[in-house]
UniProtKB/TrEMBL annotation:
GO terms for biological process: antibiotic biosynthetic process; cholesterol catabolic process. Belongs to the cytochrome P450 family. The keyword Chloroplast does not apply. It comes from Catenuloplanes atrovinosus. Keywords: Heme, Iron, Metal-binding, Monooxygenase, Oxidoreductase. GO terms for molecular function: cholest-4-en-3-one 26-monooxygenase activity; heme binding; iron ion binding; steroid hydroxylase activity. This is Cytochrome P450.
Amino acid sequence: MSLTVASAGRVFVDPRAYADPERFLAACAFLRREAPVVRVEHEDFRPFWALTRHADIVRVLRDPGRFLSEPRITLAPKAYEAVSKRRSVSIIQMDGPEHDVHRRIVADWFTPRAMRRLEQDVTALARRAVDRMAGLGGECDFVADVARAYPLQVILSMLGFPERDYDALLRLTQQSLGVLDEDLRRSADPADQAAVVADLVGYLTDAARERRARPTGDLASAIANARVDGRPLDLPDVAAYYMLLVTAGHDTTTSCIAGGVQALARFPGQRELLRADPGLLPAAADEIIRWVTPTTEFMRTAIEDCVIAGVGIAAGDALYLSYRSANRDEEVFASPDVFDVRRRPNRHLAFGHGVHHCLGAPLARMEIRAFLGELLPRLRELEQAGDAPLSETLFVSGLKRLPIRYRMAG
């Protein structure tokens, strides 16, 4: 069936479309050509404008004074918006000076100097992950057996959470982000989703209370004991900060590492380029991030009338910013549908842009480089060994499974 503007716009409200890259990206390419700013209406969602071109999305992200993160930060059905409104506000939902002050609480933990101090520990965890892969006998589900644990170990060790809690936190974060996927969510009942959030918030609030009473010099302690305008953060706000770091700090990086290994299995020539020249690892990490784009979108709300790409936007209208579409924009990327580990420059928007650019971007890049740096010298053969479905989602996307066969040295 041929695409129309209306049918193409509906991919943004269909979780199954996010799990079908060919369909989703075809619709985005059509919209970039025919209707780069399109109004989407669906009975289960409040209306919004979808932006699909890189330049238009950058324009919005560069103007946080006119396009606010609140009150609608990501796309969700109306039934689930009520659940999300009961959560504490995190920095991704803040604007203006409030955002800047709260961002500074953790900024020093993600500077280049901080990343250099952390590099040895991240490399050791990457080596442990590759050793585990080597010990699995040449066949595994890469997502479940390797990719999920490694980034989670990195961020939870930074926070200082005990390793005995990692499995429970992994399960809760998967259920929290996989609310629209029947394989990941606890159930289809919005009340159960509220229970997942309550369980996760309960754990994190207890951790915040403990770090405030007995600081231990870790990232969790720094947040729990931070002061804004001379006052400590409320415990629910500390828990919200932890939740953002736990979810954003591991799920998106897991998706990138898994999607990157799948790409290297699909394109062995690219894999050999990396094996022959490890100096390409920084460029490869960014290309993997662009290729996967795990955070598919964010939203903004216009506070005054404006015009974007010739379309009138009214004050109060919601804008859906399709990062996944922007990262395949032909006006920005040469051969955007080609996976190229030598791609430079790489102006992808997978980490956002402007004042809300992801704080954890340097950490994610380092984790991907470290893992590939440990894997590729030992990897001799690699192939995908079965179906690798993507999660059905409206926000954070990634492979649910990746069966692979491989041969490793050592």
